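re: ur msg from earlier - yeah i can do the iron/sulfur cluster complex, just paste it... oh wait u already did. ok heres what im feeding in:
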Amino acid sequence: MKDLRSIEYEDLCALMKELGEKSYRADQIFTAVHSGRADSIDAINVIPKTLKERLKEHLFLSSMTVIKKQSSDDGQTDKLALSLEDGNVIESVVMDYSYGTSLCISSQVGCRMGCRFCASTIDGVARNLSPAEMLLQAVMAERETGKRISRIVIMGMGEPLDNMDNVVSFIKIITHPKGRNMSQRDITLSTCGLVPNIRRLADMKLHVNLALSLHSPNEEVRKNLMPIANAYSIDECLNACDYYFEKTGRRISYEYALFDGINDSISDARQLSRLLKGRNCHVNLIRANDVKETGLKGSTQAAATAFEKELEKNRINVTIRRRMGRTVDGACGQLRRRVIAPGS
Ligand code: SF4
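and the outut:
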């Protein structure tokens, strides 16, 4: 049995053919499922009962439950803890910006990448999310907040390129004209730097935005923050990102979480500027949250501003990203941990 929501349009067309059904049935089913209204095969009103019964022999529609919602004091951020059908818990974050509402989704239950500043990785990875489970996060976010999601960032729990096939399927489904028809340009995939899969993604020419978590221009500091840096050097990551830009024309974002006394000095900013000089890119600075498990502390506002100014002086495009608020357990994976391990 397969989750109908995880099936790409072309595969649904093939299934209809196999079942001896007219091809327009695939359009009807795909549209009904991805409009977000049909929660069960019985609720696909546009198809006859006999076809529903035949579909149920091969397919099902999974569901997801909101078990906790936290909203920031300014009402601009909602964080959702969501329970999957097998009892695993994931999280999504809905953020309002001047240009619309953005949703940050999880791609795995947990993560095996081991970044020192991240609560999502503490218990390793339990399993990959299916395309349906990624799509459902958007459905649940809209139902729960009443807001229309206009952008998606795959930047929550999990490393998307460690679950690449399902993530690519998710992107194909959510952007399909017969379904939700979201633009690929409104989707950002964030990776800690799985170089071979960045290159694979580039060759697919999907036109989604790519963000690389860089966090330091210094190899040793980066290795200390992110174990994946032991496998792929900064140069290898940047070359893979250059390749992505060449193939897709999409400007790369470099994510840089600022930690007090670790990677936030003016000399770090200068080194970063030298590294990125001449590259068509954007740097997103994030004042990191404190991480009590590892003793890492987020940078001060003054240090973040000085870092930003140094990059600007060196003509690097840069912004300091809005903090997602401590009131909603802002850092990645923290709300989920509160739910699955109260008191942590
Ligand atoms: S920051 Fe991202 S890649 Fe690193 S451990 Fe957390 S979820 Fe995984």
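cool cool. The mean pLDDT is 93. ping me if u need the other ligands too
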